[in-house]
Amino acid sequence: MSRRLRTLSVSEAEFQALVQEALDSVPEPYARHLANVAVVVEEEPSPEVLDELELESEDDLLGLYQGVSIDKESFFQAGGQLPAHISIYRGPILRLCRTKKEVVQEVRDTVVHEIGHHFGLDDDEMPY
């Protein structure tokens, strides 16, 4: 897949709003399980994340779920775990997409994909 050299102009605020719109579109039965999940926009995945996931390029990662999925949560788990955390990476998404319409769709798909991990779905079980 050929990557674009020029990034679309979507401001940080616009991108944040697209992520929020995607979150707001999650149906209530699922949305209530996201109350304690931090969703943040980051410009790029860190070198540490890329190393941990054995990825060569930051363009290979559009979002990341970190935490214990709700299907694995247990009353008997040891305390002190950080809450679940979803990162959405603005730079890779903007470099992937050719139009603003594609950005809107990719943000939605990435948010839904990472939320799927919170519910215990593996990559091959995702709708996107």
UniProtKB/TrEMBL annotation:
Entry-linked Gene3D superfamilies: 3.30.2010.20
Coiled coil: none
InterPro entries: Zincin_1 (IPR010428), Zincin_1_sf (IPR038555)
Recorded superkingdom: Bacteria
Protein name: Metallopeptidase family protein
Organism name: Nitrospira tepida
Phylogenetic classification of the source organism: Bacteria, Pseudomonadati, Nitrospirota, Nitrospiria, Nitrospirales
